[in-house]
Amino acid sequence: MNPSIIDINEQNLNETLQISQQLPLVLVFYTPSHETSQNFTALLERFAEHHQGQFVLAKVNCETEQNIAMQFQIRALPTTYLFKEGQALDAFQGALDEQNLQQRLSLILPKEEEIKFNLALDYLQAEDYNAALPLLKEAWDLSNHKNSDIALLYAETYIAMKKTEPALEILNKMPLQDRDSRWQSLQAQIELLVKAADTPEIQQLQEDFARNPSPQIALKLAIQLHHANRNEEALDLLFGILKNNLDAENGEVKQQFLSILAAIGNNDPVTNKYRRLLYSLLY
């Protein structure tokens, strides 16, 4: 028995309607002897099974539950109500095909980015940042970079991993009107992490490189930057060497470049950016 599909009677009607405070609810009135309404109810059942708990389907058999049908003043079969957050948002008479039904249900169903976002939250509660990151990236992309709640959590996850560069990139894409106290707090956290990552070793190597921009010093500096999670700076530094000589330091610069890409993983947008740049030199 599917818990997302409920047969309604007078005893469970109010309790079922209360479900819509937490989950979207589809309430359909039908009779088994009315072929159109029976077929449409079967289609709704398939949708409920496909969407796996994203909404509850409540079915009212008007032959056995005439009082409920009268209460809702049912005049035609099938009649369908769509509830969300305790409110009836839509109602329609007659059957719909799959495409039109999907369009109608989009009023109450969570968007794809919301589903990804909620899955990511589950992983974040378990502190599984690597599993959460690709879901947050998909959610952020699906929202066309307009959902600031997703952006803030996406940036926050990178900050928890001490990866300031992608976090800053995400925050800088947020519209000005959404840059609230939480945005400012994340910016402050990034500043603290950047200061903590600016070690004396890095400062010395940066001074050395400014005086003598050699591949040997670039390699040492890139390794220190990588250890401080300043990966984009490290890759940018090494790429500057590779542009002039792909085999610098007997290929060691390219090898370190690839090692950093492998270490930060495919989920980091920095990886794709610098992998493309490297391919542009190779091919």
Condensed summary:
The chain is an alpha/beta fold. The protein contains 14 helices and 5 strands. Helix 7 (148-160) packs antiparallel against helix 8, helix 8 packs antiparallel against helix 9 and helix 10 (200-211) runs antiparallel to helix 11.
Question: Tell me about the biggest sheet?
Answer: 5 strands, mixed
**Quaternary structure type:** single chain
The fraction of residues in strands falls at 5-15%
CATH class of the largest domain: Alpha Beta
Shape: elongated
Look at the structure and name the CATH superfamily of the largest domain: Glutaredoxin
Number of β-strand runs: 5
Q: Strands across the major sheet, in which order?
A: 1-3-2-4-5
Gyration radius, in Å: 28 Å
Domain count: 3
**What is the N-to-C order of secondary-structure elements (H for helix, E for strand)?**
EHEHEHEEHHHHHHHHHHH
What is the percent of helical residues? 55-70%
Kindly report the average pLDDT value.
92
- Could you name the CATH topology of the largest domain? Glutaredoxin
- What class would the helix/strand composition place it in? alpha/beta
Describe the protein in words:
It is built from 14 helices and 5 strands. The chain is of the alpha/beta class and 283 residues long. The chain has 3 domains: 5-105, Glutaredoxin (3-Layer(aba) Sandwich), CATH 3.40.30; 112-197, Serine Threonine Protein Phosphatase 5, Tetratricopeptide repeat, CATH 1.25.40; 200-282, Serine Threonine Protein Phosphatase 5, Tetratricopeptide repeat, CATH 1.25.40.10. Strands 1-3-2-4-5 form a 5-stranded mixed beta sheet, with helices on both faces. Strand 4 (79-84) and strand 5 (87-93) form a beta hairpin. The chain starts with a strand and ends with a helix.
